[in-house]
Recover the amino acids of this structure.
DNA sequence: TCACGGGCCGTGAAGGTTCACGGTAGAGAC
DNA sequence: GTCTCTACCGTGAACCTTCACGGCCCGTGA
């Protein structure tokens, strides 16, 4: 209801011209004190607020905006990335818009987001076609998978070698019966569970020394704890477990404590992510640390390259971030 | 360098009119397949991308945007609020923009943010005048303090009674020598340390049973741990400690473990926030839980009221959120 | 032959603001 | 009395896209 109140309405109300209203609103020169006050009063009376679109259109602000889409903001891993992205974006004069893909209306949110930003970055599992549809041809930086389609850039984490390294270190310490707790989020996207790449890399790394894999119901602390307990119940001889991520690994540590299982004495636990929270528990969590800051800075680099190229369709840019084995106490 | 490439450039390149370009770009009817392809090619060649400002200006999208300013995205408390805010915003069709105030260029970031949003919400310590300056008359929802200036709304947490309740519960369990670890973030804003309201409320609640207060250097786990250790060193007889927030309380639990201090046997530890992380440590953290979801929904309520009122200067709206004592194992 | 309709495309206007420039009035200088 | 200067204010244009509408051409049916 109600048309928008424009600068012309204010001008009429105050008995002046558009330009004078502009001068009053933006604290410019060439206006008398009394007139400014009169205009300001009129604006206040009418509830006038300049249209940010019209203003940005004419001032041609070079503030670019970046849309960040993550699956969940309950996981410190993603919020860490967001935090790094945010501080980097502020330095470079970029704006950060947020959207979560764990909600029901993921696609709709993406549609609205894409109308407001210059680049879309995030962890996407959807195929490029759907994504391109939703983003209307905007450049996309994928933080999960590498794609070769033009307009789809990526920052990729080399977890495969990280997992290999971790398994090697576990073997050095005598572990030889490996288990894993995998995430089941693929169910949401594909309808049925599909093994994550992490699981495939892990299974390849441990070979025939695998005792079993349990898929967690929920991607959080308690989900990880339950799955860990289930894994030990099914395969009591397991002596080393890779948890899909640190959040679940935290649950595993807690679960082990509740079950009276010695960590790392009888079972070694390794997480993935490198959250600082891992230091808060006892024993402190051993983890395959992902360089989240590197992800953020690489992403912003790509965004800036795209901005320099006027967001034209340029060759896909791919960056890789390495992992680091953070050997703490739980393994 | 380089002017922006507009729809007219594409039209010229393809030998058609603006409208035809629009039809091609937006998958509209009334255009032949060959023409569409020709236009798309031309757009691709020139690197054309529609101006989101011009588009939003004319389509008059009713997608309002909310700018969230928090002090740090390293603290789960704030990211929880952001998460709740985000899911609520998605439901209501709002857009969420982020800015952090812990960086150096806080004011500049706020300036740029305010050019893109309809409402600014956040934890502000700056006086209203500066804030109004930076926000250019945008409505502000303060999540920390209550203000009576028009245009400044608030969602306020009634921590005072929460602290009173917690102290009472501690007394019931025999505690009578109270200590506290306060946050020193006020140093950054005001130049020197100023006691936080939490400290004042706590001191009022414990009266002459106060052993001492230590101000933490950093608002994080290790900062809390250090301050806690320092508190015990100075006042070894302390039997109950209120930590400024849960993050610091996590550090206190860890620190106590390292010092060989029994929790809650010899010292009871209480945090503030109600983070789910508190369940991950042993003993699980007792805490004064803040209803972050309530904060988010109340904030969005206010934002919607403002949007309905066309963001006119209406009477300040104030909401209050109560706390809940979450008695777990550390106290 | 004419009327009609559908497929394809172009023109004027609108959307709300700011920029660049031009104009007026009054004060002071000569 | 004329000129200049300053303080204040208004008008046309620009920013870039979409909407509403109108025009053209060709095929079909009567």
């Amino acid at each position: 209801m109600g048309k928008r109140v424009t600068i012309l309405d204010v001008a009429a109300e105050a008995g002046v011209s558009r330009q004078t209203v502009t001068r009053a609103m933006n604290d410019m020169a060439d206006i008398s004190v009394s007139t400014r006050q009169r205009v300001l009063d009129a604006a206040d009376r009418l509830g006038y607020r300049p249209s940010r679109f019209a203003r940005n259109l004419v001032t041609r602000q070079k503030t670019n905006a970046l849309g960040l889409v993550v699956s969940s903001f309950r996981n410190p891993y993603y919020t860490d990335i967001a935090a790094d992205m945010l501080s980097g974006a502020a330095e470079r004069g970029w704006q950060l818009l947020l959207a979560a893909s764990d909600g029901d209306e993921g696609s709709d949110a993406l549609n609205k987001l894409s109308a407001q930003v210059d680049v879309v970055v995030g962890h996407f599992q959807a195929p490029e076609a759907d994504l391109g549809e939703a983003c209307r041809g905007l450049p996309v930086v994928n933080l999960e998978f590498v794609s070769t389609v033009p307009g789809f850039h990526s920052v990729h984490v080399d977890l495969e070698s990280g997992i290999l390294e971790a398994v090697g270190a576990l073997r050095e310490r005598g572990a030889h019966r490996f288990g894993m707790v995998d995430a089941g989020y693929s169910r949401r996207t594909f309808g049925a569970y599909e093994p994550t790449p992490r699981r495939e890399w892990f299974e390849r790394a441990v070979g025939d020394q695998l005792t079993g894999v349990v898929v967690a119901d929920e991607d959080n602390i308690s989900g990880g704890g339950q799955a860990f307990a289930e894994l030990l119940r099914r395969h009591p001889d397991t002596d080393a477990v890779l948890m899909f991520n640190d959040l679940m690994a935290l649950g595993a540590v807690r679960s082990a404590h509740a079950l009276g299982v010695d960590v790392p004495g009888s079972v070694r636990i390794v997480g993935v992510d490198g959250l600082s929270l891992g230091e808060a528990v006892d024993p402190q969590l051993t983890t395959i640390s992902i360089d989240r800051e590197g992800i953020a800075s690489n992403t912003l680099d790509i965004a800036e390259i795209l901005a320099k190229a006027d967001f034209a369709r340029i060759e896909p840019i791919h960056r890789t971030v390495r992992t680091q084995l953070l050997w703490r106490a739980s393994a």
